[in-house]
Specification:
The protein is built from 9 helices and 10 strands. By secondary structure, it is an alpha/beta fold. Strand 6, helix 4 and strand 7 form a beta-alpha-beta unit.
Protein backbone atom coordinates (compact mmCIF):
# COMPACT_ATOMS: atom_id res chain seq x y z
CA UNK A 1 0.00 0.00 0.00
CA UNK A 2 1.26 3.46 -0.91
CA UNK A 3 1.80 6.58 1.20
CA UNK A 4 0.22 10.01 0.59
CA UNK A 5 1.34 13.40 1.87
CA UNK A 6 -1.38 15.78 3.11
CA UNK A 7 0.25 19.08 3.93
CA UNK A 8 3.20 18.10 6.10
CA UNK A 9 1.61 14.80 7.12
CA UNK A 10 2.69 11.42 5.73
CA UNK A 11 -0.44 9.29 5.72
CA UNK A 12 0.21 5.59 5.34
CA UNK A 13 3.37 5.26 7.37
CA UNK A 14 3.79 4.69 11.08
CA UNK A 15 0.92 4.89 13.52
CA UNK A 16 -2.52 5.63 12.02
CA UNK A 17 -3.19 9.35 11.91
CA UNK A 18 -6.02 10.94 13.88
CA UNK A 19 -8.50 13.35 12.33
CA UNK A 20 -11.01 15.36 14.36
CA UNK A 21 -14.03 17.19 12.90
CA UNK A 22 -15.13 20.78 13.22
CA UNK A 23 -18.92 20.86 13.23
CA UNK A 24 -21.18 23.80 13.83
CA UNK A 25 -23.96 25.73 12.14
CA UNK A 26 -22.95 29.21 13.26
CA UNK A 27 -19.63 30.96 12.71
CA UNK A 28 -19.10 31.42 16.44
CA UNK A 29 -19.44 27.65 16.99
CA UNK A 30 -16.92 26.94 14.23
CA UNK A 31 -14.39 29.43 15.60
CA UNK A 32 -14.76 28.01 19.10
CA UNK A 33 -14.28 24.46 17.86
CA UNK A 34 -11.13 25.38 15.94
CA UNK A 35 -9.74 27.28 18.94
CA UNK A 36 -10.43 24.31 21.22
CA UNK A 37 -8.57 21.97 18.89
CA UNK A 38 -5.42 24.08 18.66
CA UNK A 39 -5.39 24.60 22.43
CA UNK A 40 -5.01 20.85 23.05
CA UNK A 41 -1.71 19.72 24.52
CA UNK A 42 -1.45 17.07 21.79
CA UNK A 43 -3.43 18.34 18.77
CA UNK A 44 -4.71 15.98 16.07
CA UNK A 45 -2.76 15.10 12.94
CA UNK A 46 -5.54 16.34 10.67
CA UNK A 47 -8.72 18.43 11.02
CA UNK A 48 -11.87 17.98 8.95
CA UNK A 49 -14.22 20.90 8.44
CA UNK A 50 -17.69 19.42 7.98
CA UNK A 51 -18.95 22.23 5.80
CA UNK A 52 -22.44 20.70 5.42
CA UNK A 53 -23.14 21.79 9.01
CA UNK A 54 -22.45 25.46 8.26
CA UNK A 55 -25.66 27.47 7.78
CA UNK A 56 -24.19 29.75 5.06
CA UNK A 57 -22.18 27.18 3.13
CA UNK A 58 -23.92 28.00 -0.16
CA UNK A 59 -22.79 31.63 0.13
CA UNK A 60 -19.18 30.99 -0.90
CA UNK A 61 -17.95 34.52 -0.22
CA UNK A 62 -19.02 34.11 3.40
CA UNK A 63 -17.84 30.48 3.59
CA UNK A 64 -14.47 31.49 2.22
CA UNK A 65 -13.99 33.88 5.13
CA UNK A 66 -14.70 31.23 7.73
CA UNK A 67 -12.45 28.63 6.11
CA UNK A 68 -9.72 31.28 6.02
CA UNK A 69 -10.19 31.80 9.77
CA UNK A 70 -10.00 28.05 10.38
CA UNK A 71 -6.79 27.86 8.37
CA UNK A 72 -5.22 30.72 10.33
CA UNK A 73 -6.13 29.09 13.65
CA UNK A 74 -4.86 25.64 12.68
CA UNK A 75 -1.51 26.97 11.40
CA UNK A 76 0.40 23.87 10.20
CA UNK A 77 -2.28 21.26 10.95
CA UNK A 78 -3.60 19.98 7.59
CA UNK A 79 -7.24 20.78 6.81
CA UNK A 80 -9.71 18.48 5.05
CA UNK A 81 -12.80 20.04 3.45
CA UNK A 82 -15.88 17.81 3.54
CA UNK A 83 -19.45 18.41 2.46
CA UNK A 84 -21.23 15.24 3.56
CA UNK A 85 -24.49 14.81 1.67
CA UNK A 86 -27.79 13.88 3.30
CA UNK A 87 -27.74 10.49 1.57
CA UNK A 88 -24.47 9.60 3.29
CA UNK A 89 -25.25 10.87 6.77
CA UNK A 90 -24.70 14.60 6.27
CA UNK A 91 -26.81 17.58 7.22
CA UNK A 92 -28.30 18.62 3.89
CA UNK A 93 -29.02 17.75 0.28
CA UNK A 94 -27.10 19.17 -2.67
CA UNK A 95 -27.27 18.78 -6.44
CA UNK A 96 -24.32 17.38 -8.40
CA UNK A 97 -23.44 20.64 -10.19
CA UNK A 98 -23.59 22.60 -6.95
CA UNK A 99 -21.48 19.95 -5.22
CA UNK A 100 -18.77 20.14 -7.88
CA UNK A 101 -18.73 23.92 -7.75
CA UNK A 102 -18.47 23.97 -3.96
CA UNK A 103 -15.56 21.53 -3.84
CA UNK A 104 -13.70 23.42 -6.56
CA UNK A 105 -14.20 26.70 -4.68
CA UNK A 106 -12.69 25.09 -1.60
CA UNK A 107 -9.74 23.77 -3.59
CA UNK A 108 -9.10 27.14 -5.20
CA UNK A 109 -9.28 29.01 -1.89
CA UNK A 110 -5.74 28.09 -0.93
CA UNK A 111 -6.85 27.31 2.63
CA UNK A 112 -7.41 23.53 2.50
CA UNK A 113 -5.03 20.64 1.92
CA UNK A 114 -7.46 17.88 0.98
CA UNK A 115 -11.04 17.47 -0.23
CA UNK A 116 -13.49 14.64 0.40
CA UNK A 117 -15.36 13.40 -2.70
CA UNK A 118 -18.29 11.02 -2.30
CA UNK A 119 -17.58 8.36 -4.89
CA UNK A 120 -21.05 6.93 -5.51
CA UNK A 121 -23.64 9.42 -4.23
CA UNK A 122 -24.73 11.16 -7.41
CA UNK A 123 -24.75 8.50 -10.10
CA UNK A 124 -22.34 10.69 -12.07
CA UNK A 125 -18.78 9.84 -13.07
CA UNK A 126 -16.49 11.52 -10.55
CA UNK A 127 -13.23 11.19 -12.48
CA UNK A 128 -13.62 14.65 -14.02
CA UNK A 129 -14.10 16.26 -10.61
CA UNK A 130 -11.07 14.40 -9.24
CA UNK A 131 -8.98 15.66 -12.16
CA UNK A 132 -10.13 19.23 -11.52
CA UNK A 133 -9.18 18.97 -7.85
CA UNK A 134 -5.80 17.48 -8.70
CA UNK A 135 -5.11 20.44 -11.00
CA UNK A 136 -5.58 22.60 -7.89
CA UNK A 137 -2.95 20.48 -6.09
CA UNK A 138 -5.55 18.92 -3.83
CA UNK A 139 -5.28 15.55 -2.18
CA UNK A 140 -8.58 13.76 -2.84
CA UNK A 141 -10.12 11.39 -0.31
CA UNK A 142 -12.78 9.28 -1.97
CA UNK A 143 -15.52 8.24 0.43
CA UNK A 144 -18.53 5.98 0.76
CA UNK A 145 -20.79 5.68 3.82
CA UNK A 146 -23.45 3.06 4.40
CA UNK A 147 -25.52 3.86 7.50
CA UNK A 148 -27.90 0.94 6.90
CA UNK A 149 -25.72 -2.14 6.72
CA UNK A 150 -22.35 -3.75 6.16
CA UNK A 151 -22.09 -4.99 2.54
CA UNK A 152 -20.56 -8.34 1.68
CA UNK A 153 -16.79 -8.50 2.00
CA UNK A 154 -16.22 -8.72 -1.75
CA UNK A 155 -18.43 -5.67 -2.31
CA UNK A 156 -16.50 -3.60 0.24
CA UNK A 157 -13.20 -4.55 -1.39
CA UNK A 158 -14.65 -3.69 -4.80
CA UNK A 159 -15.70 -0.23 -3.66
CA UNK A 160 -12.23 0.50 -2.27
CA UNK A 161 -10.59 -0.52 -5.54
CA UNK A 162 -13.12 1.44 -7.57
CA UNK A 163 -12.30 4.60 -5.62
CA UNK A 164 -8.64 4.03 -6.37
CA UNK A 165 -9.45 3.55 -10.05
CA UNK A 166 -11.42 6.81 -10.04
CA UNK A 167 -8.09 8.50 -9.24
CA UNK A 168 -8.70 9.10 -5.52
CA UNK A 169 -5.51 9.48 -3.48
CA UNK A 170 -7.10 7.73 -0.50
CA UNK A 171 -10.21 5.57 -0.27
CA UNK A 172 -12.52 5.77 2.74
CA UNK A 173 -15.29 3.32 3.56
CA UNK A 174 -17.61 3.55 6.60
CA UNK A 175 -20.32 0.96 7.22
CA UNK A 176 -22.89 0.17 9.90
CA UNK A 177 -22.67 -3.18 11.71
CA UNK A 178 -25.62 -5.21 12.86
CA UNK A 179 -23.53 -7.80 14.70
CA UNK A 180 -19.94 -8.72 15.52
CA UNK A 181 -19.64 -10.67 12.27
CA UNK A 182 -20.19 -7.48 10.29
CA UNK A 183 -17.29 -5.83 12.11
CA UNK A 184 -15.13 -8.85 11.40
CA UNK A 185 -15.96 -8.68 7.68
CA UNK A 186 -15.09 -4.97 7.51
CA UNK A 187 -11.70 -5.75 9.05
CA UNK A 188 -11.19 -8.63 6.61
CA UNK A 189 -11.98 -6.38 3.65
CA UNK A 190 -9.56 -3.79 5.01
CA UNK A 191 -6.78 -6.34 5.38
CA UNK A 192 -7.35 -7.73 1.91
CA UNK A 193 -7.22 -4.34 0.17
CA UNK A 194 -4.34 -3.00 2.27
CA UNK A 195 -2.15 -6.01 1.48
CA UNK A 196 -1.96 -4.93 -2.19
CA UNK A 197 1.19 -2.87 -2.80
CA UNK A 198 -0.57 -1.08 -5.67
CA UNK A 199 -3.52 0.02 -3.53
CA UNK A 200 -3.87 3.62 -2.41
CA UNK A 201 -4.00 4.21 1.35
CA UNK A 202 -7.36 3.20 2.79
CA UNK A 203 -9.46 4.47 5.67
CA UNK A 204 -12.13 2.12 6.97
CA UNK A 205 -14.42 2.02 9.94
CA UNK A 206 -17.33 0.06 11.30
CA UNK A 207 -19.56 2.66 12.92
CA UNK A 208 -21.39 2.81 16.26
CA UNK A 209 -20.15 1.45 19.57
CA UNK A 210 -20.23 -2.07 18.20
CA UNK A 211 -17.67 -1.16 15.56
CA UNK A 212 -15.38 0.78 17.88
CA UNK A 213 -12.58 -1.79 17.60
CA UNK A 214 -12.20 -0.90 13.92
CA UNK A 215 -11.27 2.69 14.83
CA UNK A 216 -8.50 1.41 17.08
CA UNK A 217 -6.99 -1.42 15.07
CA UNK A 218 -5.97 0.31 11.85
CA UNK A 219 -2.28 -0.48 12.20
CA UNK A 220 -3.06 -4.20 12.46
CA UNK A 221 -5.51 -4.45 9.56
CA UNK A 222 -4.32 -1.63 7.29
CA UNK A 223 -6.49 1.47 7.84
CA UNK A 224 -4.18 4.49 7.85
CA UNK A 225 -6.36 7.13 9.50
CA UNK A 226 -9.10 7.21 12.11
CA UNK A 227 -11.61 9.80 13.29
CA UNK A 228 -11.99 10.93 16.89
CA UNK A 229 -13.81 13.71 18.70
CA UNK A 230 -12.39 16.77 20.41
CA UNK A 231 -15.77 18.06 21.49
CA UNK A 232 -18.74 17.35 19.27
CA UNK A 233 -18.65 14.08 17.29
CA UNK A 234 -19.63 13.96 13.62
CA UNK A 235 -20.44 10.23 13.36
CA UNK A 236 -21.59 7.40 15.65
CA UNK A 237 -18.74 5.60 17.39
CA UNK A 238 -16.20 8.42 17.54
CA UNK A 239 -14.42 8.56 20.89
CA UNK A 240 -12.37 11.26 22.58
CA UNK A 241 -9.05 11.89 20.84
CA UNK A 242 -6.78 11.59 23.87
CA UNK A 243 -8.14 8.16 24.77
CA UNK A 244 -7.84 6.98 21.18
CA UNK A 245 -4.26 8.20 20.85
CA UNK A 246 -3.27 6.20 23.94
CA UNK A 247 -4.76 3.04 22.47
CA UNK A 248 -3.10 3.58 19.08
CA UNK A 249 0.25 4.18 20.79
CA UNK A 250 -0.02 0.93 22.79
CA UNK A 251 -0.76 -1.05 19.62
CA UNK A 252 2.04 0.73 17.73
CA UNK A 253 4.60 0.00 20.43
CA UNK A 254 3.80 -3.70 20.22
CA UNK A 255 3.97 -4.15 16.46
Amino acid sequence: MKCVKIGNLNVGEGMPKICVPIVGAAEAEIREAAAAIVSLENPPDLVEWRADWYEHIFDWQRANEIVKEIREQLKEIPLLFTFRTKNEGGERKIEWNQYQELLCHAAQSGYVDAVDVEAFSFGNPVEGLVEQLHREQMVVIGSNHDFQQTPETEEMVRRLYEMRDFGMDLAKLAVMPRNAGDVQRLLAATCQAASDSEMCPIITMSMSGQGLISRMSGEIFGSVLTFASAGRASAPGQIEMGKLRQILAIIHENQ
